[in-house]
Amino acid sequence: MAQAATANGADKALKTAQTKGSADDVRDQIAALQADMAELTRAVSAYGKAKGEDARAAAELRAEELKTRAEKMGRDAEAQLRSGYAQAEGAVRENPAAAVGIAAGIGFVLGLLSTRR
């Protein structure tokens, strides 16, 4: 019986040692997992910041292109208006009577259209 008690005690000690070893292994694995998660979080954060900066830079570039294009279109429109004004002014200087007749006709038509309402 003394041998059985010694064997039971040895089994319990072995199981306790195995359990303690398993608990230490689990703690080590959890710590490693936490470190990996922290590193992954930092990597994802850095990646997100880089992509955000890339998107911002692309948007700024596109905005600058659109601004330049709009300014050019504005200058072109102004040049066309000045050219049209100069042509109209030249036509009025060449034929003042015709210009007055055309203006009177347009005024008459607009007057008719506005009184029909």
Main attributes?
single chain, 117 residues, mainly alpha, ribosome binding, Membrane-anchored ribosome-binding protein, inhibits growth in stationary phase, ElaB/YqjD/DUF883 family, YqjD/ElaB, DUF883_C, coiled coil
Short description:
By secondary structure, the protein is mainly alpha-helical.
Write the layout of secondary structure elements.
Layout (H helix, E strand, L loop, with lengths): L1 H93 L1 H20 L2
Helix pairs in contact: 1-2
Structure description:
This is Membrane-anchored ribosome-binding protein, inhibits growth in stationary phase, ElaB/YqjD/DUF883 family. Keywords: Coiled coil. Residues 1-23 are annotated as: Disordered. The protein is built from 2 helices and no strands. With 117 residues, the protein is mainly alpha-helical. α1 (2-94) packs across α2 (96-115). The chain starts with a helix and ends with a helix.
- Mean pLDDT across the residues is 85
Which stretches of 5+ consecutive residues score pLDDT under 50?
none
Q: What portion of residues is helical?
A: over 70%
Shape: rod-shaped
Q: How many whole angstroms does the radius of gyration measure? A: 45 Å
State which percent range the strand residues make up.
under 5%
The CA-CA distance between the termini, in Å, is 122 Å
Summed up, the helix count is 2
Q: How many domain modules?
A: 1
Counting helices, strands and paired strands, the structural category is mainly alpha
Largest sheet: none
Number of strands: 0
What string gives the helices and strands in order? HH
